[in-house]
Amino acid sequence: MRFSRGVITIAIIVVVLAVGISVGLVQLLKKATPLAVPEAHCTVRTPGAERTLDPEQAQISATIAAVAARRRLPERAVVIAYATAIQESKLYNLDHGDRDSVGVFQQRESQGWGTKKQIMDPVYATNKFFAALVKVKNYRKIPLAEAAQAVQRSAGGYAYAPHEEEAKILAAAFTGRVPQAVHCWYPTTKSPAPEPKTAEARKHLTRTLGSAAINSKKRGWLIAAWSVAHAEKYALSRVQYAGATWSNDVEAEGWRKGEVSGTTRVELS
Q1: Would you say 100 and 108 are in contact if contact means Cβ atoms under 8 Å apart?
Q2: Containing H/E element for 247?
Q3: How many CA atoms lie within 13 A of 96 on its CB side?
Q4: What phi and psi, each to the nearest 5 degrees, are found at residue 223?
Q5: Is 118 helix (H, G, I), strand (E, B) or coil?
Q6: What distance in Å separates the CA atoms of residue 122 and residue 208, rounded to the nearest whole number?
Q7: β-strand 101-102 against 238-241: which pairing, if any?
């Protein structure tokens, strides 16, 4: 079958127009439908394990580890505290609960833990938890659920035990025993970007930890993890320690080899 030149020309024009329209539509859709921005999140990576937290959970985790370090408590105490907090509040600072229970550990004003305002302060609540824990005989050696129940006196004390492995992962990361284990990211939508509140961050850290002084690499990594967990709160975009750098980069898998940095200070910016 033969076609005239006119028919062939028309066919070519139709094809070209179709391709042009398709390309135009694709470009228009790209402009009209921006890529979805991920929500703020944190990743905890230790050898053989990885967990995802949201920023509030990471901040609570960092606070518990810092208070334990201030009180010079062993990692076992941190594990018990994490397992308890995971069960009681999922590591959130709740303003409600059973009867008058509130806060990270769901402590009750009517049971002598403090006022509601005090209990809603994670630093205060964690200090009260540890103050009670250290009075439990052999708390380092007895089963975790038994130690937690001795502090909490919950109706379901058996419920703490299933969270022990999760608690061990968090403890290894936030105590600084495993370096570079905490990585967070948060979206920056304001333009221009807000100035980092480094002075406020260090003031908060000092209240929690007692001092920002570093006398060991483990303590340095604890401070680094605390800083990354609080990055969104204080508009931090970079944390540097021991030759490694965390940056608020959604494409970053974790810490990267960074600028030369000593081991006597964690740099925030």
Answers
A1: yes
A2: strand 244-247
A3: 0
A4: -65, -40
A5: helix
A6: 9
A7: unpaired
Distance CA(252)–CA(35), nearest Å, equals 18
The residue behind tokens 């509140």 is: 197
pLDDT per residue of the chain (269 residues) written in tens, 0 to 9: 444 555 445 545 544 444 444 444 445 444 444 456 689 999 999 998 999 999 999 999 999 999 999 999 999 999 999 999 999 999 999 999 889 999 999 999 999 999 999 999 999 999 999 999 999 999 999 999 999 999 998 877 789 999 999 999 999 999 999 999 999 999 987 767 789 999 999 999 999 999 999 999 999 999 999 999 999 999 999 999 999 999 999 888 889 997 666 778 999 99
CB of 66 within 8 A of CB of 130?
no
Longest distance between any two alpha carbons in the chain, whole Å: 100
- How far apart (Å, rounded) are the C-alpha atoms in residues 56 and 222? 17
pTM: 0.85
Does residue 268 sit in helix, strand or coil?
A: strand
**Rounded Cα distance, 268 and 33, in Å:** 35
